Amino acid sequence: MHRSVIAVALGTLLSAAPLAAQGSSQTSGDRAEVLTVTERMVEAMRVRDTAALKRLFLPGARLVGMRTRRDATAPHVQALTPDQFADFVARDTARGTWIERLWNPRVEVEGTLATVWAEYDFHFDQRFSHCGVDAFQLLKTAEGWRIASLADTYRTEGCAERPGP
Q1: Residues 34, 148: contact at Cβ < 8 Å?
Q2: Which candidate among 12, 54, 85, 116 keeps its CA 20 to 30 Å from the CA of 91?
């Protein structure tokens, strides 16, 4: 009897092992590749490489956030296509170099879907502008990981104090 209980317990553990391994398909390689895409995005913004910026996004991707207009009291949803965003980055030269830095990224990967949640701060040259959280959704395609959507928060107060860029 004792042997049969051990055999059943061992059999249960061995059969459950593949299920546990299937529960999450995240690998350190996937995590690194996903983070590389987010870093490429902020670098493309910094150097105003609009072609590189557009390539990071899937067709139909959206960038969304809540913004308060100077002439309005209530915030509104700002939604851009990657092309609109890249054009905005290219045109906005008067305020200086766009420097966005991502902090404490949390990455989740399941098969061909990845999510990155990262704090960020944003500067124009050395001037602090705002901070918030970026929430990326990425899909793994034949060409690699690409951004399907990016939503962010935006605030100018209560930001973590960090060294300048």
Answers
A1: no
A2: 116
pLDDT by residue for the chain (165 residues), tens only, comes to 444 433 434 343 344 333 333 344 567 899 999 999 999 999 999 999 999 999 999 999 999 998 877 776 778 889 999 999 999 999 999 999 999 999 999 999 999 999 999 999 999 999 999 999 999 999 999 999 999 999 999 999 999 999 999
- β-pair type (113-124, 127-141): antiparallel
- Ordered domains of the chain (ranges, CATH): 28-152 (3.10.450.50)
**Size of the chain, expressed as the number of residues it contains:** 165
Rounded to the nearest angstrom, the gap between the alpha carbon of residue 103 and the centroid of all alpha carbons in its chain is 11
Residues 6+ apart with CB under 8 A from 3: none
pTM: 0.80
